[in-house]
Amino acid sequence: MTKIFQITLLTLYAIFLVSCTADSKKVELESLKAERREIELKIKALEGELMASGEMNEVKTTEVLVATMPLDATNFTHEVEVRGTVQSRKNVLVSAETMGRVEKISVEEGQTVKAGTKLVFLDADLIADNISEVETSLELAEAVFVRQKNLWDQKIGTEIQYLQAKNNRDALQKRLATLKTQLKQFEVKAPFAGTVDDVIVKVGEMAQPGVPLIRVVNPDEMYIMSDVSEAFLGKFQQGDIATVYFPVQDKSYKATITSVSKVINNQNRTFTIEVALPTNEAGFFQPNQVAILKLVDYANEAAITVPTKLIQTDASGKYVYVAGSAEGKTVALKRRVQTGLSFNSKTEILAGLTTGDQIIEKGYRDVNEGTEIKLASL
Q: Which of 4, 89, 292, 331 has the least CB density, counted as fewest CB within 10 Å?
């Protein structure tokens, strides 16, 4: 019990000290305020006595030194930034048309190929044997047909014998053509000119239709695809200029919007735009490379703009200070404004200012409504 009592006493004492400290600060603050009021009263009394005796005709108000800037109609644009990725119209994973064992791979990664270049050969021994067999049968069928035709031309033999020989020859010709077409399916070819980006398959593995074997990329037909919020519908058109920025490489390019989708993705409420890439630096771009698109969504060729930092806010709204005159003096005037979009530290003023107004640019935080000011010569 004794320990609990001691702890309680210490706690109460600490609270008392904190309370005393807070009370002493309050007392000191009230004392200083009273002293300030007393000094202000003395100053006013002395000014009154001096003015009454004629020793001071006027108590001069201190002027605030400021700098102003004239407002002119200028071109104002607002940009939005969206994320995009580099895509290629010719970036494909080549697969086989038929099943077979990989017998040979004739290209390497990084190799440049032409359209139709044979990339992979599958084991086609069975098809080759069938072709050889049909070719042998076709030679015989062709010889039989020629002899039977000669006889028929001489009105020897029956018509059915001639037609059977012809049909047998024609059937073997079609069979041979089919086998040769099937043989081509055992050769995997490049669908277009480009570069072998990745060799996925290995010799001895089984190839299946639709299973990727080799990736071929053409760097000359790349573009940027980006998903843009539906809030910007109608803001961008085909042919508009965009700035493409690659943050990793710290490079920027001017590019043209080549396509604007007319369909909204119901999953993320976006539409797609495509932007062309310059062809003179095709080697710089890689598929899936990240890019930032800077798109102009608003432009006004005759806008009144002010530095955003000059716009202040109070309970009644936004305002700026301009240089004006009152009672023959140059003073600061508070001008209520209606603002539009802001970009690059500039804000468009929709209402409240006109061209020719002298807005206070430097010293604007040191003035109030009616403060006498002196214009600095810059």
A: 4
